Amino acid sequence: MATYNTNEFKAGLKLIINGDPYSIVENDFVKPGKGQAFNRTKIKNLKTGRVIDKTWKSGETVEAADVTDVEMDYLYNDGEFWYFMDPVSYEQLPASASAVGDTKNWLKEQESYEITLWDGAPLLVTPPNFVELKIAQCDPGVRGDTAQGATKPATLDTGAVIKVPLFIEESDMLKIDTRTGEYVSRVKV
Amino acid sequence: MNQDIRAFFQKNNVLEVETPAVSQCANTDPNIESFELHTQGEARYLHTSPEYPMKRLLALYSQDIYQIAKVWRAGEVGSRHNPEFTLLEWYRVGFDYHQLMQEVGALLQCLIPALTQSSIQKSYQQVFLETLDINPHSATNELLADCIEQQQLDISGVLDRSAMLDLLMTHCIEPTFRTDCLTFIYDYPVQQSALACVREDDPPVAERFEVYIGMLELGNGYQELREPDKNRQVLEQENITRQQRGQKTMPLDDRFLAAMEQGIPHCSGVAIGLDRVLMARLGKKSIQDVISFPWGVA
Q: Which residues from B are below 8 Å from A26, CB to CB?
C-alpha cells in the first residue's frame, strides 16, 4: 500500500481517508513557536465533491489513492453505463451515472473527456471547457418578443435545456461553456 | 528595514555581534530538526538559532547584544516557513521579560505601519479561558480532548498534552488575534518552557512570551534560565524525548553549559523572525514573497 508523509502534501495530491478518495485542495504548514507542527488542509471527497477541513500531526502517513486522470473519447450509452474509449489502446471503460453526473448534458460522440480513474474504474467524468452541440428543438424567434430578455429556451440533442438568443433556430450548432452551461456562440457547420 | 533595526539598537546602546552558524553541537528541541553537514569525516550542524553562542558571549562580557543571523530548520516549508530564514535575536542585561516585551513592542511598532492600535497583552491562561472557557494549566487531558472535539477539529495523529494545547492555540485562539495591533501572550505551561525560568506559582508557569500580529507569530522570548544544572536537565530531557520518539539524539553543547557554570547575568532574550516582520511591513500573505529565492528555487 503506497503512502504519503505529510511533508509530501501539496494541492492535487490524492489520498484515501476512511475508504474514500480525496484530493488536497489547500495545504498549510502550521507550527507554533517551538511546538508541534501540523498540516492544516482542505480536502475534497472525489466521490461526493464535498470539501472538508482536516488537520494532520506533521509526520503522519496517509494512504495514497490510486487516482489518475486520463483523456478518453465518448462512444455511447446503454442507459445504465456510459462507455468511453482510450484513443491509443482502444480499451473501453464503462462509467456509471453517478460518475458521469452533470456531464451527461455535454456528451458528444468522438469528443474527448477527462476521466478520473480510481483503482482503474471511472470515478468522475469532466467535460472540456467548451463543447459544440446541436439544437434538437426550439421555438422560432419572433422579432419584437423581448418579454424574456431576448432569449428563449432550446433543447440540445443531449436533452439539456439552455437559454439561447432569439435568432437561433433548430438544427443550429452551438458552442456551449460547460462550466456555466451557457450559450457562447453559433458555430458554422 | 534592517537600517531601522540597527538605528533602534544604536540608540539603545545594544552591541551588534556575530557568532558562528556552524557548530559541533546542535539544538536538542524534539520539535526542531537541524541540518547536518558532513565534511572530512566530521559532522557539524547549522544553527537553528544563535542562542548558545550568544549566551557564551553574555557569560564573557555581560553586555546587551543583538544579532541578525540566517538560521536553518529542516522540513519547515509553507506560507510562513522557509527552512532558511533570518532571525533578529537580542539579550538585555537586567531586564525582566515584561520590560523586554515593551521593547519588542516599541521596535515592531516602528517597523510595521499596519500597527495602528496599542498592543494587547494576555497570559496563556487568560486567552484560553476567554476563547475556549478552559484552563490550559489545570484542565485534564480528557477535557482538552473534549474541547478539540467540541471545536470540531478533525485531527489525525495521537497528540500528547502539549500538542493538544498547540492545536487549540493555532486553530482556535490565534485566529482571534487582531491584525491592527500586536498580541503578546505570556506565562506559558511549564512543559513548553525550554530554557526559560519557571516561576513557582499556583500553577507554576514558564516566564516565556510570544508576540503576534494577527495569526502571524513574530517572535519568542524568555526570562533566561540561569542555573547551569537546570539548563543541563532541560537539554538532557529533550534528548530523552527525541530518543523516545525515534529521533536522532543531538550532541549537547558542553561549551554553552560551561558558560552557564561561569554564570550569565540576570537577563531576558528574544528572537524575532525578520522575514515575517517584512511580510507584515509589506502586507504580504506568504513568506515566499519576501525571500529572494525561496527553498524550492534556491
A: none
Q: What is the pTM of this model?
A: 0.84
Chain A partners of B77 at a C-beta cutoff of 8 Å? 29
Phi-psi region of A78 (alpha: psi -120 to 50; beta: other; left: phi over 0): alpha
Tell which residue, A58, A47, A76, A139, has the closest CA to residue B245.
A58
- What are the tens digits of pLDDT across the range B121-132? 999 999 999 999
At A4-16, the pLDDT tens digits run 999 999 998 999 9
Q: Which of B31, B79, B210 sits opposite A36 (nearest CB)?
A: B31
Radius of gyration over every alpha carbon of chain A, rounded to an integer in angstroms: 22
Q: Are strands B155-156 and B198-199 parallel, antiparallel or unpaired?
A: unpaired
Position A146 scores a pLDDT of: 59
Could you tell me the domains of chain B? 2-116+220-297 (3.30.930.10)
Can you list the domains of chain A with their CATH numbers? 3-64 (2.30.30.30), 67-126 (2.40.50.140), 130-187 (2.40.50.140)
Q: In the structure grid, which three cell numbers stand for residue B174, read together?
A: 490565534
Q: What is the pLDDT of residues A164-182, one digit of tens each?
A: 988 888 889 999 999 999 9
Low-confidence ranges of chain A (pLDDT < 50): none
Q: Which of A28, A32, A33 sits opposite B78 (nearest CB)?
A: A28
